Amino acid sequence: MSLINLISEAIFGKDKKEKTARESAKERLHLVLVNDRAGQIAPDFMPKMRQELLEVLKKYLPIADDDDVEFNFARKENTDIMEMSVSLEKTDEKKNIE
Amino acid sequence: MSLINLISEAIFGKDKKEKTARESAKERLHLVLVNDRAGQIAPDFMPKMRQELLEVLKKYLPIADDDDVEFNFARKENTDIMEMSVSLEKTDEKKNIE
């Protein structure tokens, strides 16, 4: 099963625990990086990389407040999983991009 | 359960189907965007946004060949899940970043 199907099933699965993940996915944009070789991103570059990724997302998505960025990091079996989530503006119309 | 724990459990879970996802996570960097408001990224901007995200990743990670980019997209219950994966160079030493 591909990663995207796994994640999609994880978020939209049936049992209780997935429901909480779906609630947490609400109103926020989540960017997840799964890097198979742990430790490759030098810790001091992580904040810079995160900020640059955020700058790209801000161009295309109605990010409400880029100070409201949550960041999670997990390392398991030589794989780094970095998650960044930002709040989305309440308005529904698409951001007009110059 | 937070999204990162769910994804981490999904990749490193026990049963058979997760194993194939772990295999597919191997040797590749995966970037997953979970956007709670489907359709917010105008389709014509998706390729541009993807390319710009890739440019950021290339600065910090030993991406082998940025033509070897796999892209998956799923839409479920008003949520868009976009996955981009790129192959990582075989070398282990960290990329020296100017």
Question: What does this protein structure show overall?
Answer:
Chains A, B: Belongs to the MinE family. Chains A, B: One of its GO terms (biological process) is regulation of division septum assembly. 2 copies of one chain form a homodimer. Chain A has helices at 3-12, 16-25, 46-60, and strands spanning 28-35, 69-76, 79-87. In chain A, a hairpin with a 2-residue loop joins strand 2 and strand 3 (79-87). The radius of gyration of chain A is 15 Å and the shape is flat. In chain A, 36% of the residues lie in helices and 26% in strands. The mean pLDDT of chain A is 75. Chain A has 98 residues and is α+β, with helices and mostly antiparallel strands. At the A-B interface, helix 1, helix 2, strand 1, helix 3 and strand 2 of A face helix 1, helix 2, strand 1, helix 3 and strand 2 of B.
